[in-house]
User: What shape does this take?
Amino acid sequence: MQFIDLQKQYQAYKNDIDKQIHSVLDSSHYVLGEKVSELEATLAQYVGTKYALGVSSGTDALLMALMAKDVRPGDEIITTPFTFFATAEVISFLGATPVFVDIKEDTYNIDPARIEAKITSKTKGIIAVDIFGQMADYDAINAIAEKHGIFVIEDAAQSFGAKYKEKRSCSIAEIACTSFFPAKPLGGYGDGGMIFLNDDKILEKLRSIRVHGQGEDKYNNVRIGINGRLDAIQAAILIGKMPYFNGEMEKRQKVAEFYNKNLKDILVTPKVLERNISAYAQYCVRSNQREKHLLALKKNSIPYAIYYPKPLHLMTAFESLNYMQGDFPITEKIAGEIFALPMHPFLEEKDQKTIVDILTDK
Assistant: This one.
């Protein structure tokens, strides 16, 4: 049994994916080019934004978004301590300061009610994370940002395909960033990412940043940028997968429904709010007897993972921020109880039942 079965997915879509890859090989256009433009147009239409920009990774998408918003040393960016390292890493990389806000215990997303107390004269923006595939409360977050004149970036690395009040992930903040890392809901066969937005001027800056700060004159760089381009082969793979994506989202919902129904009496199962549809990038449950459950899974060769065992505010890399154990009690509690079960569209019913039987001691 695989935690995420990428081989089954490839075999199911092999002809489409191979056809797309070979079209790139035949063209010899490996960086940016027609396939990247095609993917950008397809995904912008899918999520409902004016523009999409293919980039080298989800991390670089976040970094470039902050660069496009002129984030500099001394600025503060509010975000969650319960997420992958990259979310706060890119803030620090630019010399700005990540300011953490605790999460909601039911959804694990940043708690909007706690944000305003952390806003200072140095606050420039908010990065909200759609953890495990469920979108954060953007109506509340956007309202706070508008009141204080700061920006919002949606970290949608785990939520491509999700919905919030009928609006698709990547369409609801000023800038949204997603990842095409292989394990994501829409994954490539290497690193890749996408930035979504509606603003023409920010798009122009992002296009420049993506190619070393290049200006209209190819050999005159007008700003500091990065090598943030999406490879054409990765775009081709994603184009090959995209026709199947909605079907995969439906299958993820069915797997989650089976888990929810059969595990709700012994574990804390994910709470997806009525207004939301989760992409279920991960299916995470909680238990105050986590080690017992993990041992049972391990004995039966069932793969699992812990997202995330150590909150960002307690990581060595952020020691200079002077956070301490106890500063974000909800995050710390969740980190001590949470673990993830196999979740992917090709997870067979018999395997789902096996996992449930092991966890329920049947």
